[in-house]
Amino acid sequence: MQRRSDSKLSSAATRDHRRNGNAVVVILAVLAILVVAGAYFFGPTLMSQINAGSETSDSKAMTHKVRRENLVVTVTDDGELQSASNVDVKCEISGGSTILWIIADGTVVEADQKIVELDSSGIEEQLAAQTGVYEKALAAQIKATEDAAAADIAVKEYVEGTYLKDLQEVESLITIAEENMRSAQNVLDHTQRMSRKGFATPLQVEADGFAVKRAKLDLDFAETSKKVLEKFTREKTTRGLEATRDAALALARSEVAAVELEKTKLDKLTKQLTKCVINAPKAGMVVYFAEQSRYGSSSSNIEEGSPVRERQTIIQLPDLTQMQAKVPVHESKVEQVHAGQRVYLKVLDREFQGSVTSIANQPASKSFFSAKVKEYPADVRIEGDCEGLRPGMTAEVEILIANLENVLTIPVSAVVVKGEQFFGFVKSPEGPQKRELLLGLSNDKYVEVKDGVSEGEEILMNPRAVMGDQLKDEESEETKDESAGVSSRFGESSATPEPAAGGDKPSGSQSGGGSDGASGSGSRPTQTFASMDKNGDKKLTSDELPWPGAIDRLDTDKDGSVSAAEWAKRPARPSSGGGDGGAGRGDGAGSGGRSESGAR
Questions:
Q1: I want to staple 589 with a disulfide (CB 3.0 to 4.6 A). Which of 42, 64, 522, 594 is the partner?
Q2: Percent of the chain topping pLDDT 90
């Protein structure tokens, strides 16, 4: 029974194996049929793609036919609206003040309407103190003026009164002395005659003679007094009185000036007290003044309780019927913008026309964190009805630079920039041809071509996508040529000059490996003493050495040249074990905005 069951199991397994084998054969047959059918239907297409492997770049190429057309060149940027005519309301309080009350921002006011009230307490205190100072100065002026008048009267009093009185007194004394002298002389003469007749004694003669002498002395005294009065006393007294008068007049003038000064201060304080209340000089809309901070942001600190400086603008009253846009012009385009150019503006959904009125000759201040890009503000006057426009609105501004007619144009994306040169790739039967281009003005899409291509030729619009490998090879060759140029200059394959150990290297050099003779991969032999000795005098001077400053390090005897012995004793170069190292130099630009900038 056991053998019978085993034989049944064996026969069942054999049947299953045969069934599975037949299924595999069927599947393989179906696959073979599919492969043959696919080869029949898709074989030619696959073979054409394999044979056209070199033409895959052409399948990616997008070309543009060079043609003549009109080219409109514009400068487009966003600007900020502002009034072309603003009236600034400023703080005119000396030393500044504090805002006690201010009208709400955006309020439409009438002329002479109160808009700001500043703190006047400090001015009122100064005004009270100044009033006292002024009154004291006025009193001093009055006294000095009266003293000067009295001094002037004193001069006249002496010249026209006192002096004449004194002169008359002296002259009267002279007259009396002369009369007394004559009388005494007559008495003496009579006594002398009587004495000769015996009627007078000698004592009487002597007494009468003494009386004559005394009369003579009185006369001399009176004459001398007159002489002193006329020659000295009059002049001395007059000068003294005039000096007193002049000093009094000077003091009076100084007091007058002091009063005027104190009066000016008093009037100024009185006027400033009136300026603590500011009225609108004209009708308009109130706009709080916003200052530009050092970080480039605009903020307004105008509010009740905030301090304001002297001459600080508090409020602006713009004329909304005369609006303009302030447009920042990039430094690369500023030479193309000038006054009088036509401008198209778009504010919200409204379109306007205008013209450039002015452009700044200095760049605008930038934010502390902004890039080092210079922008020059240009003012654009908006023409037509400005109703609904408000300061601070954003305007899309397009400045018309030029309208070129019938010029050759190509897309900006077709231009490849390499340093100071511009290139394009023109389609030809032999493949894309590289052409150097002479460009003119451009806009955001097209650039004027003055030379390099002809009308009707097709130029690649995506040269980097199509010619990517070739451009990379060219950039690599430029890098090698540049590295080789530096190497030949310094006599080193790695562009490393011949410094002392740890010495300075030229800027941009890279360390290479190797010793004299050969270095790493791609190295060149080092310059020898004989190859550098161009004049054959067995000495190397500074103009023969291939790197700057070498003469100072190698000229050990300081004779102005390097001998073969000094050259042999030069310090060994450090080895870094590398070969020609160098970073490749690309063109540093794409085919979009850089091309436009270059074209401009």
A1: 594
A2: 47
Confidence of residue 300 (pLDDT cuts 50, 70, 90): low
The C-alpha angle 491, 496, 501, rounded to 5 degrees, equals 115
Three-state secondary structure readout of 372-419: CCCEEEEEEEECCCCCCCCCCCEEEEEEEEEEEEEEEEEEHHHCEEEC
Q: Could you tell me how many residues make up the chain?
A: 600
Q: What is the mean pLDDT of the chain?
A: 78
How confident is residue 553, by pLDDT bands cut at 50, 70 and 90?
confident
Whether the CB-CB separation of 482 and 585 falls below 8 Å is answered with: yes
Q: How far apart are CA 370 and CA 377, in angstroms?
A: 16
> In 3-state terms, what secondary structure has residue 226?
helix
* Dihedral, CA of residue 489, residue 491, residue 496 and residue 502, to nearest 10: -120
408/440 Cα distance (integer angstroms): 10
Which one, of 342, 445, 351, lies nearest residue 402 by Cα?
342
Q: How far apart are CA 248 and CA 151, in angstroms?
A: 7
Q: What is the pTM of this model?
A: 0.48
Quote the DSSP letter at residue 266: H
Question: Do 340 and 311 meet the contact criterion of CB atoms below 8 Å apart?
Answer: no
